[in-house]
Amino acid sequence: MYPERLTQFTKEHSDTVAAIACGLLLLLGAFALHLNFLGLALLLLPAAYVIGGYESAREGLTTLFKEKELDVDLLMIVAAVGAASLGLWQREYHLIIDGAILILIFAISGALEGYAMRRTERSIRSLMSLTPDIAMLLRQGREEEVSISQLKVGDEIVVKPGELIPTDAVIVSGYSSINQAAITGESLPIEKTVGEEVFAGTLNGYGALKLKVHQPPESSLIQRVIKLVEQAQTEEPPSQQFIEKFERSYARLIVIAGVLLATLPPFLLGWNWETTIYRALTFLVVASPCALMAAIMPTLLSGIANGARQGILFKNGSQLETMGKVRAIAFDKTGTLTTGIVQVFQVIPAGNYSPADVLKVAATVESVSEHAIGKAIVKAAADLNWVSAVEVQAIPGQGIIGINKDQQIIVGNAAFVQKHVTNLPEELHKSASVLEQQGKTVVWVAQGGGGEGERGGQGEKENSKFNTLSPTPPLPHSYTPPLLHSPTPPLPHSPTPPPIEVIGLIAIADEVRVETAATITRLKTLGVEQIVMLTGDNQRTADSVAQAVGINQVYAELLPEDKLDVIRRLQKQYKTVAMVGDGINDAPALAQASVGIAMGVAGSDVALETADIVLMADRLEKLAVAMNLGKRAHSIVKQNIAVALSFIILLLVGNFLGNINLPIGVIGHEGSTVLVTLSGLRLLK
Length: 685
Fold this sequence. Notes:
The protein is elongated. It is α+β, with helices and mostly antiparallel strands. Helix 4 runs antiparallel to helix 10, helix 5 runs parallel beside helix 26 and helix 25 packs antiparallel against helix 26. The strands form 4 sheets. The protein has a 7-stranded mixed beta sheet with strand order 10-22-21-20-11-18-19, sandwiched between helices. Strands 2-1-3-9-4-7 form a 6-stranded antiparallel beta sheet, with no helix packed on it. It has a 6-stranded antiparallel beta sheet with strand order 12-17-16-15-14-13.
C-alpha cells in the first residue's frame, strides 16, 4: 500500500521531489566543503545541479532548438553553470554553492507554481468526477447496469434516493428534491416532478425517480461545462499572449546585455574578470521576467475555478479580464430580466369565436416552437383537441406561420399579424392596449385562406346540424311533404377562399425575477455607466418591466439585427459592452458584444454556444458576482505586474551598485515569482 502511495506521490509531485532532493544534496555538499572534503563536495553539488535543474534545462533547450527562442529556464541554467564554472576556474568553490542555491530556489519556485496550478486545476477537475460511470437502465421491466456511454435517447433509467443522476433526462415518474449545487451553484435543493428536466452530476434526494434520456449523454450540461472549462485552460488571453511575446524579445535583450556586461567593464570600468563575470551572471538572474510571466495566468485560472464553483462558467480567461472593464450592459427581457416561465393570463376572442377556439388555433403552430411564449400557449391548450400545423415557419422577434386544415395560421405581435389581415378589430385593440400597460405580452391570432377552420364555439358547432336549409320556407300551419328531388341543382362552393381574419388575442404574463432590481442596482455601484433593455416585445410592456427593475433606456419591438445594431452603437460610445440573453434571437448580439452572457438553464443551445460566460443557475445576481470577479482579477493582475517590474528594477540597480550577490539576487527574483503566484491564488476564495 505504502510503496504504491509513494510511487503515486512521486509521479504527481515530481517537481517537489526534485526540489527536496536538490536541497538535501546542496546541504550535504556545503557541509562536505566546509569540512574540506573537496572530492565529496564536487560529487554531491553537481548531482544537485542535475536533479534540481534537469526539467528547466530540458524545457529551455527544447524551446531553443524547436522554436529558436530563448526562455527564462535556459537563462537560469546558464547563470548557475556560469557561477559553477567561475568557482572552479578561480578555485572559489563557494560560487558553486551559489549556483546550486540558484538551482534550488528555481526548483522550489517551480514546485510552488506547480502546486498552485494543481490546486486550481483540482477545483476545475472536480467537475469531472460529478457523474457516475454507470447507470441503472430499465429494460423490459428489469434493472440492468450499463455504462453511461451506452445510453441512447429514449432509454429509461432508474435513480434511487441519494444517488448521482448519470445524465441529463426528463422525469417520467416520481417526485424528489434535487441538489444542483455542483452544477448551478444553487445552495438549496430544488423540488422536481414528472415532466421536469434533471441534470447529470446533480444529487437525488429522498425520492426514487424514473427518467427518460432525451439527449445523448455526451451532450449533457455537465459534459458541455467540462469541455468549455478544458478549452478555457488551454486558451491564453490577449494579455498573456502579449507578455509571452514580450518575454521572447526581452530574453534576447538580456542575453545581448549579459554578453556586453561580461566583456566590456574590464576595458571601460577597470573591473577584474571575476567581478565582471559574477555581475553578468547575477544580471542574467535578476533581469529574467519569471515573476512577470507568472503575473497573469494563475490569477485568471483561479478566477475561472472560483466562478465554476459558484455556477458561473467563464469560457476563457480573456472574458474574465473583459468583465472587469465592462462599462455598459444590454439585457434581453424575456427569460433574462423576467423568469421566462410564462403562462397564459387571458384569452380574448373576436366575433363568434370562443377562447378555446383561439387557444387551439394558436397551439397548432406554437406546438413546434421552442419559444417560451409558444410553450405557454401549448400548455394552456393541452386539454383541447387540436393537431399540429404543417409548413411552420418562425420569424424571430415577430411571430410564426403555419398551415392547418388548408388554412393559414398567423400568430405573433400586432405589426406582424397586420401584414396579413386587412384590419385589427377595434375592440381587441383597446383590450390589448390595457393589457400592455399592465406589462402583459399580447399575442394576436389570425386564420383564413381556405377550408372551414375553427369557426364558432363548441356550442354553435353542436347546434349546426339543426340549421339545415330548405329550398322554400314552409308555410305556417301547412304540411310540407318531403322532397324526393331538388327542384334546382345546388350552387357550387365559391372558389375564393375566405380572407385571413383576426380571431382573438392571448395575453401572456411573465414575472420579473425577484433578484432583478437588486442586481441592476448592484451593477451600477460596480461602475456600469449604462444599462439598457433590448426586446422584441412591444414598447408598453417593455417600459412596464424596465420601470419595475430600474432600467431607464429601453429598445422595444426589435428584430435580431436591430439588437445587433444597438450593441454596435453602445460599443462606439462605451467601448466594452456586455450582452445578457437566452434565446436564438439574442445570438447575433451575444456574438457582437465584448462579452456575451447566456442564461444556462433557460438559454437555447445557440445562445450557450455563442456566449462567453454562462450563468448556470439562471440566477441573475450571479452577474454582479461575475463582474466583481473580473474587477478583482484585473486589479490583481495589475498589482502582480507592478510587483514583478518593481523587483526587477530594484535588483538591477542593486546589482550595478554591487550591493547584492548571486544568492540574494536569486532569492529576490524567485521570491517575487512565488509572491505573484500566491497573489493570483487569492481569487480561489
